[in-house]
Design a protein that fits this description.
It holds the Pfam family NTP_transferase. With 265 residues, the protein is α/β, with parallel strands linked by helices. The protein is 25% helix and 28% strand. The strands form four sheets. Strands 1, 4, 5, 6, 7, 8, 10, 13, 14 and 15 form a ten-stranded mixed beta sheet that branches. A two-stranded antiparallel sheet has the order 2-3.
């Protein structure tokens, strides 16, 4: 069974004031927090173990898990905690919450939690991105491509109107927020355990600026194309949009049935 690492240590400044007293992972969308929505999807994909790379207001996450654990919590040292929660289908999910520090790059955060990893591969998820990524197909793709890391990509719309300009400054066309030609990284990355052990250390930088760039140059980075749903919660506008989708019942894909291959992870 593959471990899932959720990156959730950032300050969430673009979500202020929602993050004035809460980490982004505990900001609610409808009746559920981002953490609960992520666990709902992961539980539905057969995931049984999640590790949180907490940082900003880590104590709030630890308190949240302590209150909801269906088994006695375990103190793991250095302020880390182990709990067991239940997703919407009632399946137990083990959650390890590790305080990886304030303003620490994501590569160093993953190195910090590496002693908790048990599986040969782990999936790294952004704590502010929701998506109905098929974990079984992602893992199959990763193993088939035989690369060190696989990132999940998706098509996205530009937040701006695009202007097509011809000679002498003449506007030839205007496209309102078109779909971008190049895909975007939405997280849901599969990392071989050897990469975590050999390439990450306490001084590692941001994954995208450090490890992933190096692996791309070395030909050890593959992409898994996701053509389903995905939503981000990076700003207050994003949160308002997600609230609207929740009220309209358009986030039900987060609790879709378990895929046929999920038990083989």
């Amino acid at each position: 069974m593959m471990d899932v690492v959720i990156l959730c240590g950032g300050r969430g400044t673009r979500l202020f004031p929602a993050t004035a007293t809460l980490p982004k992972l505990l900001v609610p969308i409808g009746p559920r927090t981002m953490l609960e929505l992520l666990i709902a999807h992961l539980e539905g994909q057969g995931i049984q173990r999640v590790i949180l790379c907490a940082g900003y207001r880590a104590s709030e996450i630890i308190s949240f898990l302590t209150e909801r654990s269906v088994e006695p919590v375990r103190e793991l040292g250095d302020g880390d905690l182990g709990a067991v929660v239940r997703g919407p289908r009632g399946r137990p999910v083990e959650v390890v919450a590790a305080d990886t520090g304030l303003d620490v790059p994501t590569g160093a955060r993953i190195h910090r939690i590496s002693p908790y990893l048990r599986s040969q591969e782990c999936m790294v998820v952004y704590g502010d991105v929701l998506g109905d990524v098929a974990v079984d197909r992602l893992l199959h793709h990763h193993r088939w491509r035989c690369k060190s890391v696989t990132v999940t990509t998706a098509k996205a719309r530009s937040p701006f109107g695009h202007v097509i300009v011809g000679e002498q400054g003449q506007v030839r066309a205007f496209q309102e927020k078109p779909v971008l030609t190049d895909p975007v990284n939405i997280g849901f990355m599969v990392l071989d355990r050897t990469v975590v052990a050999d390439e990450l250390n306490p001084h590692s930088g941001q994954l995208e600026e450090d490890l992933l760039r190096r692996l791309a140059v070395d030909g050890q980075l593959s992409a898994f194309e996701h053509d389903g749903h995905f939503e981000k919660m990076d700003t207050l506008a994003d949160r308002e949009r997600l609230e609207g989708l929740w009220k309209q019942g358009e986030l039900d894909w987060l609790t879709a049935p378990v895929s046929d291959l999920a038990t083989t992870l």
